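Intended use. Records like the one below are meant for learning the mapping from a protein sequence to its folded structure. Do not use them to infer anything beyond what is encoded.
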Amino acid sequence: MPPTAKQVVAHWSDREDESSLAVDWEEAHERCRRCAYRARLEKCHIVPASLGGTATPDNLVLLCSRCHREAPNHSNLQYMWQWLRATCVPLYDTYWTVRGWEEFEVMFGRKPFATFADAGEDSPASDYRSLLAAEFDQTIIHFGEGRRNPATIACMIAELEQKLATRLGITLPDPPATRARTGPWGI
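Structure written out for the chain above:
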């Protein structure tokens, strides 16, 4: 019989320090260990079964389906814990929004709203809220996902910037020319 989610959590709560992880052990049976969203969790093999990993609490971690797809598939279990600590966020329910801001930087080659700070503009928070609320109506959550993906969030930020720039008479820089991303070896 496969272990329950609570058995997986109980195993790791005695062995891993929660202080640098996204979720307290008390809520780890209902929130993803990486993104901290409350979701239907999957039992993710730390060492994949095809590399000799077992379906036992010492080789499982609870992740949402999105994080499960991004998890490392390696025979050394320490990489899973290193990945969880390196990529989690300290506040519940913010992981995918943070990823959206990072996606904006990749897509537009600059930090969101940097142009406004450079121009000395500080628009009231109420402006941001009302414009952002309108922008939510222009997007959807992809079927089966449960939240907007990082690329959609990046586009929402870009639209919000454009509306604020128009209102304030600021010219935004053009996005960088479309280019293939290269890896550390120039490939």
